[in-house]
From TrEMBL, chain A:
Residues 95-326 form the ABC transmembrane type-1 domain. It is a multi-pass membrane protein. One of its GO terms (cellular component) is plasma membrane. Belongs to the binding-protein-dependent transport system permease family. It is found in: Cell membrane. The chain crosses the membrane at residues 12-30, 101-122, 134-156, 203-219, 257-279, 307-329. It comes from Ancylobacter mangrovi. InterPro entries: BPD_transp_1_N (IPR045621), MetI-like (IPR000515), MetI-like_sf (IPR035906). This is ABC transporter permease. Keywords: Cell membrane, Membrane, Transmembrane, Transmembrane helix, Transport. One of its GO terms (molecular function) is dipeptide transmembrane transporter activity.
From TrEMBL, chain B:
Keywords: ATP-binding, Cell membrane, Membrane, Nucleotide-binding, Transport. Residues 19-269, 308-572 form the ABC transporter domain. It is a peripheral membrane protein. GO terms for cellular component: plasma membrane. Pfam families: ABC_tran, oligo_HPY. PROSITE patterns: ABC_TRANSPORTER_1, ABC_TRANSPORTER_2. InterPro entries: AAA+_ATPase, ABC_Ni/Peptide_Import, ABC_transporter-like_ATP-bd, ABC_transporter-like_CS, Oligopep_ABC_C, P-loop_NTPase. This is ABC transporter ATP-binding protein. SUPFAM superfamilies: P-loop containing nucleoside triphosphate hydrolases (SSF52540).
Length: 337, 580
């Protein structure tokens, strides 16, 4: 098993190398002159040249690339020109924020979408099937910034059930000690229930926003996959053997229907993690998506490179996790591996 | 035979029948209103009795049995009639009552056993599920009892098999597991729905013998649903013939065979391949003289150079089978190289003369399909030569062969007439496909004329040409597939079980059509099949294959009459014969 994981990781090396080269080139061909941007509008050409030389941008591309790779090898992703911090530190602070939000949103979504999809398939054509369709269509057709703003309006402005959407934690509280980077887990681990409550009251609204958006693909995929499995021969055998409906649906059909659902989960997760800039903006969430967008707008190439690289590595790990899950669910995949 | 008849007619006369179906009518709700799948069916079955229900597709034989088990689709419902099983009114009983009967008092085994098992659960666990559901075992002793059940269906090394997944077992072994599942709780009634379709003839015999033996041992009533009259007659006391939802005849197996009363039964019986008859004998009475010319005499083996010469043909696959390519893609093939490659075809040589048809016979996995794929040049041989008309076409990579001038001369008729047609092509478009692709230069009117000519050759009325596959019957789709294969006037046609998916009466017509076309167009055939009777009627020579090698070769009549190899004898003796 371990050897298998190692081999699987080794195959990801070429794609990581590809990602490094492509992001390097892309950030160099982006329109906009980094040096001019940071020199300011009143800068003299001479000052711009000085900054350019300081950043190493005056050297030919291959030389810049070698320098970049050398830095990478020592774990140095460069400094962000906007925040003035090392990119690695920025990512380390912001990635857990995005991950915590996305995971919670996804968890909520699974808890609703999977049972809904199963019920819709078992009672095909009933009111619950229609409900599933309506929820899924509504969730996916409302843009996240709209649902986000709507939720803020209702639960913060009107009802006052949620605190102001101003980041991960109200400023009365200090962040829990950094164990996993997830505030909910860290505060629980240190027994600080007060902080836990505060962190939760901040996160639930954006998490619900994400959940509403990701309901659709998961519910639809669960339903379609369940319908296919429920029509298969072995379910007929199980019925002919007199097994209980609950055993047939959950024990036999659902486990067989899981593979496409897991694939969808992986896709939704990776999509949400990097692409929920709008949610992060609405809730002032200090996440990785808004960080990357800001860097991109200011032609701040080091954070962009760092962001893309971090996402690539995350995708590799995510796919590995999905492969391992496949193996747990389906013995046939285990043999192939 | 005698023992079974005694049980059926002796011991149980005083008791009410175990299963009593009266005037059963089943309707299916469709978009065009209710359709009657089964109409006014009556049947009674006593303990220890064996009933065969025979019919072609759409006859309602499966629907009848599904209704007895109450596992019909949601669209189906009992419109009329009663089903009484062991005193329980199955038709009107609550779902929980029927569920308690299913698997415990009445069980079912299915066609395609591998698909009938949960693919991701250990087979032993699946048996445990049934035992625990019907309180025949507690979680503590379930495993022990499951292994006992596996022993009862004669599975060798049951402790190991308990941990196997269905994909690790052969088709015959899977069917044993399905039987074990069905019989785990010692039911009183077993319904076997085409239990051996798709299994090899030797496996079929083993499975049927097991079912009959267990039924006798436990005094269990059995319903055998099959399209194979020979199988039903060989294993059943009584046979019921169904056509279009109605029972047309019901009698003892012997009576049905000695003196079939109904026209349909006679037609079915005629169409069933059996020893001592020719292809023309399969067709319904009275249709032979007008529909077909008298049987052409067997082509004398032409002198001169053979059309196809195969020398020392070998095909090797990496040990890990289908996972090989996938594993390579992900760089995981390291441990696969340790094993010697698997030889699917292990150095075979044969010839096909011009105008000859050669049968390729053997069980699944014997290499007959691999051989035909290599001759078709859809797969590359590992070594050996394939000489077609003197040229070594085996040396040409399969990818490039599609554009070579030999491609039109070797064509293929596929096993599944439905899956081998593009669902978005009309029949005419499907037939025209090779004409358009091989650059015959035909277009417009000339193309249509050629397609109509081909349709005429295969006996497909021209008004069907503009229909899509789903609007055609199985036999019509088979004709389209044949017309497509002969569109380019090939010299050699590879027929890969072309009638395996067809009903016997359709098979009879298609086989005759193939024979007529061969003579008329001077083609050679390679006919891949597991049905020895069909091969006997259609082929001049036959090759019997086993484990990638040729075990026997010769003129078909001689091989069938006096087989030399033990394996051929075993194959021949496994064919079910009616009790005459």
């Amino acid at each position: 098993m371990l050897a298998q994981i190692a081999r699987r990781l080794a195959t990801a090396i070429p794609s990581i190398i590809g990602v490094i080269i492509v992001t390097f080139l892309l950030t160099r061909v982006l329109p906009g002159d980094t040096a001019a941007y940071f020199a300011g509008p009143a800068a003299t050409p001479q000052a711009i040249e000085e900054i350019r030389a300081k950043l190493g941008l005056d050297k030919p591309l291959p030389v810049q690339f070698v320098a970049y790779v050398k830095d990478l090898a020592t774990g140095n992703l460069g400094n962000s020109l906007t925040t003035g911090q090392p990119v690695l530190d920025d990512l380390r602070a912001r990635l857990p924020a995005s991950a915590e939000l996305t995971l919670l949103g996804l968890l909520l979504s699974i808890l609703i979408a999977v049972p809904l999809g199963i019920l819709a398939a078992v009672r095909q054509g009933s009111w619950i099937d229609h409900l599933c369709r309506i929820v899924a269509t509504a969730g996916v057709s409302l843009p996240v910034f709209f649902t986000g703003l709507l939720l803020v309006y209702v639960f913060y402005f009107r009802l006052g059930w949620a605190p102001a959407p101003l980041g991960r934690l109200d400023f009365f509280y200090s962040a829990p000690p950094d164990i996993t980077g997830f505030y909910l887990i860290d505060s629980l681990a240190t027994g600080d229930f007060e902080t836990f409550r505060a962190a939760f009251s901040q996160i639930w609204l954006p998490a619900v926003t994400l959940a509403i958006f990701s309901l659709a693909p998961i519910a639809r995929m669960t339903r379609a996959s369940m319908l296919a499995v429920l029509a298969s021969d072995f379910v007929r055998t199980a019925r002919a053997s007199g097994l209980k409906p609950s055993k047939i649906v959950l024990g036999y059909a659902f486990r067989n229907a899981l593979l496409p659902v897991i694939t969808t989960l992986g896709m939704v997760f990776s999509f949400l993690l990097g692409a929920n800039v709008l949610v992060e903006k609405v809730f002032a969430w200090p996440g990785i998506g808004s960080y990357a967008i800001e860097a991109l707008i200011t032609s701040d190439y080091a954070p962009v490179q760092g962001f893309v690289l971090a996402m690539a590595i995350l995708y590799v790990l995510l796919n590995l996790a999905i492969d391992i899950l496949y193996g747990l669910v389906d013995p046939r995949v285990r043999i192939e591996a | 035979m005698n023992i079974r008849t005694d049980i059926a007619h002796g011991a149980n006369h005083m008791q009410p029948p175990l299963l009593d179906v009266q005037d059963l009518t089943v309707e299916f709700a469709t978009r065009r209103g209710a359709v009657r799948a089964v109409e006014k069916v009556n049947l009674t079955l006593g303990r220890g009795e064996t009933l065969g229900i025979v019919g072609e597709s759409g006859s309602g034989k499966s629907v009848t049995s599904y209704t007895v088990m109450r596992i019909l689709d949601r669209a189906g419902r009992i419109a009329e009639g009663t089903i009484t099983f062991g005193g329980v009114d199955v038709g009107n009983a609550s779902e929980s009552t029927v569920r308690a009967l299913r698997g415990r008092e009445m069980s079912m085994i299915f066609q395609n056993p591998r698909a009938a098992l949960n693919p991701i659960r250990k087979v032993g666990k699946q048996i445990e599920d049934v035992l625990i559901e019907h309180v025949q075992a507690q979680p503590s002793d379930a495993r022990e009892k499951a292994i006992e059940v596996l022993k009862a269906v004669r599975i060798a090394r049951p402790e190991e098999r308990y941990h196997a997944y269905p994909f690790e077992l052969s088709g015959g072994m899977c069917q044993r597991i399905v039987i074990a599942l069905a019989l785990a709780c010692r039911p009183q009634l077993l319904i076997a729905d085409e239990p051996t379709t798709g299994l090899d003839v030797t496996t079929q015999k083993a499975v049927m013998d097991l079912v009959v033996e267990l039924a006798r041992e436990r005094n269990m009533a059995t319903i055998l649903i099959t399209h194979d009259l020979g199988l039903a007659a060989a294993y059943c006391d009584r046979v019921m013939v169904m056509e279009k939802g109605k029972v047309v005849e019901s009698a003892t197996a012997e009576a049905i065979f000695r003196a079939p009363q109904h026209v349909y039964t006679r037609k079915l019986m005629r169409a069933t391949p059996r020893p001592g008859i020719g292809l023309r004998d399969l067709l319904p009475e009275g249709t032979v003289p007008e529909a077909a010319p008298p049987m052409p005499a067997a082509m004398p083996a032409k002198t001169g150079e053979p059309l196809l010469v195969v020398e020392n043909l070998v095909k090797e696959y990496p040990r890990q089978g289908s996972g090989g390519g996938f594993a390579k893609l992900f760089g995981r093939s390291a441990d696969a190289e340790a094993d010697a490659p698997f030889r699917a075809v292990d150095g075979i040589s044969f010839e096909v003369a011009r105008g000859e048809s050669l049968g390729l016979v053997g069980e699944s996995g014997c290499g007959k399909s691999t051989t035909s794929m290599m001759v078709m040049r859809l797969a590359d041989p590992t070594s050996g030569r394939i000489l077609f008309d003197g040229e070594d076409i085996g040396a040409m990579p399969a990818r490039r062969f599609a554009r070579s001038s030999f491609r039109p001369r070797i064509q293929l008729v596929f096993q599944d007439p439905t899956d081998s047609l593009n669902p978005r092509f009309t029949a005419a478009r499907a037939i025209a496909d090779p004409l358009m692709r091989m650059g015959t230069g035909l277009g417009g009117g000339a193309l249509r004329a050629r397609v109509e000519e081909l349709a005429g050759l295969v006996g497909l009325p021209t008004q069907f040409l503009d229909r899509f596959p789903h609007q055609l019957s199985g036999g019509q789709k088979a004709r389209v597939g044949i017309a497509r294969a002969i569109a380019l006037d090939p010299d050699l046609v590879v027929l890969d079980e072309p009638t395996a998916a067809l009903d016997v009466s359709v098979q009879a017509v298609v086989l005759n059509l193939l024979q007529d076309l061969k003579v008329r167009l001077g083609m050679s055939y390679i006919f891949v099949s597991h049905d020895l009777e069909v091969v006997r009627m259609l082929c001049d020579r036959v090759i019997v294959m086993r484990a990638g090698r040729i075990v026997e070769e010769g003129r078909t009549a001689e091989v069938m009459a006096a087989p030399k190899a033990d394996y051929t004898r075993e194959l021949l003796s496994s064919i079910p014969h009616p009790p005459l």
